[in-house]
């Protein structure tokens, strides 16, 4: 399993199949392209995850990535929000996937970061790096926010920035994250749902880019080598 695929698998919602591939995940975490320190951190992350009860790991993932929008792994949510431009961006991305023989199921959203990493794992290294550079401003902010919340997932997001740029300097983004209001509290989530519930007609978000959940069901096929 390549490093890029490993990071995608670990960022995805931790379904039960992940624990069935523990040895493979640990072996992949010993990636020679990483520094000794980063390898140790990644191995520690994988070990801790595998030692965690699946239900607890799933709840931790949901609390970080599926509450509020600031930590969403849907990349276009950070660019287009719920605007109609997001729909066209989705179409363009799907076309890029299909052009290179990468097909999605009906339930998969193309801008879901673990899915993008699965696609990039199949592309030439330089192309994959270009894609990562293109989204590194989003991934870097996600890393800073995850770090601000004390989440171990910050490591995976930092690794993606390093794979794109060869280094990571998140100091400005960490400062921004520390000053942002949290959007994952019950009160804030209720307020956002109330606002969206009264948007009708031309002001309503397009149905094809406003799924009921921000967690596409991709984990099962991603864990496979």
Would you give an account of this structure?
The structure is a single chain. Helix content is 62%, strand content 0%. It has helices at 3-11, 17-20, 22-29, 36-51, 54-65, 75-79, 85-99, 113-120, 125-148, 154-165, 171-179, 186-197, 219-223. The protein has one domain (3-200). The chain is mainly alpha-helical.
Index terms:
mainly alpha; single chain; 0% strand; 225 residues; 13 helices; 62% helix
Distance between the termini: 6 Å
- The total number of structural domains is 1
Helix fraction by DSSP (H/I, runs of at least 4): 55-70%
- Please indicate the percent range of residues in DSSP E strands (runs of 2 or more): under 5%
- Secondary structure class reads mainly alpha
Which stretches are poorly predicted, pLDDT < 50 over at least 5 residues? 196-225
Largest sheet: none
The beta-strand count equals 0
Order of helices and strands: HHHHHHHHHHHHH
Let me know the average pLDDT.
Answer: 82
Summarize the topology:
Blueprint: H1 3-11, H2 17-20, H3 22-29, H4 36-51, H5 54-65, H6 75-79, H7 85-99, H8 113-120, H9 125-148, H10 154-165, H11 171-179, H12 186-197, H13 219-223
Helix pairs in contact: 1-8, 1-10, 3-4, 9-10, 9-11
């Amino acid at each position: 399993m390549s490093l890029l695929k490993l990071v995608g698998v670990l960022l995805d919602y931790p379904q039960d199949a992940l624990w069935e591939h523990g040895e493979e995940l640990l072996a992949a975490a010993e990636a020679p392209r990483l520094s000794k320190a980063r390898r140790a951190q990644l191995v520690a992350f994988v070990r801790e995850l595998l030692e965690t009860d699946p239900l607890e790991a799933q709840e931790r993932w949901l609390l970080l990535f599926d509450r509020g929008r600031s930590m969403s792994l849907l990349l276009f949510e950070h660019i287009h929000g719920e605007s109609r431009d997001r729909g066209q961006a989705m179409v363009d991305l799907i076309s890029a996937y299909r052009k290179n023989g990468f097909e999605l199921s009906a339930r998969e959203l193309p801008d879901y970061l673990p899915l993008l990493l699965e696609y990039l794992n199949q592309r030439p290294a330089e192309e994959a790096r270009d894609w990562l550079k293109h989204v590194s401003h989003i991934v870097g902010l996600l890393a800073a926010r995850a770090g601000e919340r004390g989440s171990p997932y910050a490591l995976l997001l930092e690794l993606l920035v390093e794979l794109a740029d060869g280094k990571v300097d998140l100091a400005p983004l960490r400062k921004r994250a520390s000053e942002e209001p949290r959007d994952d509290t019950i009160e804030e989530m209720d307020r956002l749902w109330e606002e969206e519930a009264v948007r009708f007609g031309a002001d309503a978000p397009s149905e094809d880019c406003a799924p009921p959940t921000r967690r596409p069901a991709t984990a099962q096929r991603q864990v496979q080598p």
